Amino acid sequence: MTKGPRQGGGPWEGVPPEAWGDWRWQFRNRVRTLRQLSAVMGRSVASLAAWGPVMRVYPVAITPYYLSLMDLADEGDPLRRQCFPDPRELDQALGGEEDPLGEGEAMPVPGLIHRYPDRALAIATSTCALHCRHCNRKRLWTAKGSGGARGRLEAMVDHVAGTPAIREVIVSGGDPLLLAEGLLDWFLGALRAIPHVEVLRIGSRVPVTLPMRVTPGLCAMLKRHRPLWFNTQFNHPREITAEAAEACERLLSAGIPVSNQSVLLRGVNDDYGTMRDLLYGLERISVRPYYLFQCDPVRGTGHFRTELWTGLGIMEQLWRNVSGLCLPRYVLDCPGGRGKIPLQPFSLLPECGGEGKHSFDKTGHMD
Length: 367
Prior knowledge:
- This protein starts with 16 loop residues before the first helix and ends in a 25-residue tail after the last strand.
- The chain has a 9-stranded mixed beta sheet with strand order 1-2-3-4-5-6-7-8-9.
- 30% of the residues lie in helices and 14% in strands.
- The protein contains 13 helices and 9 strands.
- The chain has helices spanning 17-20, 23-28, 34-41, 52-57, 64-67, 78-83, 149-161, 181-192, 206-209, 216-223, 242-253, 272-284, 308-321; strands at 112-116, 119-125, 168-173, 199-203, 228-232, 258-264, 288-294, 329-334, 339-342.
């Protein structure tokens, strides 16, 4: 497990521990401008000029906590890669679409995505603690919603109440844990009061990027809405810090199961050793590896995408070498109602005879 974050360095010199551990302080002091990035890195604004055009299209937001976990001077640092701007985000030659999963076409009311018959996903807010550069909803970072938050959520509740086929609602975003706590409590309660809604689920990266937000009070509120499942996203073993583990433990102690949905990212976790260490680390903190997603073909994320063979090669090695309890399902999310397509290791396929006849080079391509 990674040691706790470094305090007292750079622009946060002298910040008292009680402020550093306050999620509101962390949120207010997110790095969001080129000038703030230059101060954090100890470089001139002019030397970072190439990032300006990227940030105008895809803004930056990074918590001091998450910044403290990375090597700021290393362009290849896997945590830095996930949140620092990269000129390749504007490279149209890398392809991609703003909404490759067709979420906008599956919204019966604004913000409620109904792609599957028995469940719907509510984009409760477009706000995040950290802007992940691989995000499949980058299109929402600069979107301005119409009307108040309560009104938007009420329209979602009304649609779910009028659609008896929906038995499960995933509350996502953005990050729903950044809603006002009272509003989130009301929303979950309103959904829970619908007779045909049996299960609620929350999707949040807060345990990874802002773990101090997972307070005892928040967990007590969430506990009232069980059965409630919690999905988060650890992508690299260095994200499993003592603070992140404590956040997950508070959720687990409230009777809320925690699962992990990683994204396969070039230069972050696209090798067997890193993925193995991530999965072992998750098992140690009682977080269940659930999905490993192939990175969606979202515009501005092409530099993160790997070949499918890379992921299949990693899964082949994992399947042969790690506990089944550690194994996520490697999936490709597809539009048009096809959903998540499982991608299996070759040794599980009939044409391979179950003997693992194929081997892979270190990039994951078949020999």
